Amino acid sequence: MFLLCSRVYVQCSRYLxxxxxxEAQRCQSTxxxxxxxxxxxxxxxxxxxxxxxxxxxxxxxxxxxxALSIIQRAxxxxxxxxxxxxxxxxxxxxxxxxxxxxxxxxxLLERTFLEEERDRHKDGNDHELExxxxxxxxSELRRTTYHRTTLRYNEDLGLVYMAARLAGGYAxxxxxxxxxxxxxPLFVPYSLLDFGSGLGTGTWxxxxxxxxxxxxxVCVDSSGDMNTLAExxxxxxxxxxxxxxxxxxxxxxxxxxPKVQFDxxxxxxxxxxxxxxxxxxxxxxxxxxKTNSYLVLVENATKExxxxxxxxxxxxxxxxxxVTYDLRRPAVFAPCTHELPCxxxxxxxxxxxxxxxxxxxxxxxxxxxxxxxxxSYLIISxxxxxxxxxxxxxxxxxxxxxxxxxPRHVQCQLCCTNGELKxxxxxxxxxxxxxxxxARSSNWGDLLPINHAEETTENDEKL
Length: 463
Fold this sequence. Notes:
By secondary structure, the chain is of the alpha/beta class. It has 3 domains: 23-49 and 392-462, no CATH class; 61-91 and 151-381, Rossmann fold; 99-144, no CATH class. It is built from 15 helices and 14 strands. It has helices at 2-34, 36-40, 61-74, 79-92, 99-120, 126-144, 155-183, 201-210, 224-234, 277-289, 303-318, 343-346, 428-431, 433-440, 453-462; strands at residues 191-195, 216-220, 248-251, 262-268, 291-300, 331-334, 355-360, 370-381, 390-391, 394-399, 404-406, 409-415, 421-426, 447-449. The strands form 2 sheets. Strands 1, 2, 3, 4, 5, 6, 7 and 8 form an 8-stranded mixed β-sheet that branches. Strands 9, 10, 11, 12, 13 and 14 form a 6-stranded antiparallel β-sheet that branches. Helix 1 runs antiparallel to helix 15 (453-462), helix 4 packs across helix 7 (155-183) and helix 10 (277-289) crosses helix 11 (303-318). The two termini are 29 Å apart.
């Protein structure tokens, strides 16, 4: 009887402890969301500090007017069709296969063909066998290996590129730069380096955001014809000495001095123009040495574009330069909220980390259509300002897919500060009213504060 009473007592004690723990965690889950009010800093939920999305982006009036005037004067034949083909070509473009990868592929093919040939011709001549295998390997490599075509941007192709990519490229760069302006309002750039400047969309986007402070723009593009077109866009299509943007200098090569730095460095859709990994690494190190505050990289929203950006990220974060002129450590500002391996590259199947921005196209046929630009981007900072995963002390997570708003909950895919990709159903009950309303007001690409209430819920269920 005594033993039975003891067991009942122990079970009752465990039950009471469990209830106390559960009640304590409930108190924590109700108190934590209240602190989120300070995250809003007085702003409405639809404009919370994590919002990075923009309304429909328009080209500056001077830029749009001049671009249309240049295109109309040139009278390019089949412009719309050629612009469409060029867009598709640039979107489907891949990196060239590296020599080491090609060699490995050839060795595997040689082993496979050697076994097949030996089974067919057991008594054949070794010299003839080797020749047949070599011929088959070369034929298979030609058939299956991606052949990269180098584009030479002359005046004609530059005009086609203007019709195809001016508005979309501007929208992607403007969206990336606007995140810096919003999250780091104290950043006031004086100088800009635009590598692979093309038509100068990076210069125009920077001027729109920081026109009053920027006093020097250096545009570097290997094509002299593209530099000429970009200069015409800035001067309004004429040769008058009153350009819309002043102090713009065009170069075909990067500045020689390694000690010259720029407050803002942009490379948009230009790393993908470099054929080999060594070329890209050399350029990335050069651009990073010339960065005083922010390095902004933008590429197509494809697997290739995303992987090129991750190459750049690893090169800067893990690579060691031979000579270092700036000892400040690099930090990922956006879109990553951490410096761990990208979870989208680890998870199978691989899906690129990309984002979207609506914009108005160049009205070539009297009508201006609303289109969507999909892009991938990377911002790395030297500044001592806000970290990517922290805003006013809150852990932030990046929304990496469309937000699905459902009755009483919001379904989100989040890239968190611990390097994990999570599916989270945000509810007012478990995450608090403020976080729930922020989630309903957020879109793909925005930042969202996380209070980890889902972990508390799991612990409740275990108890």
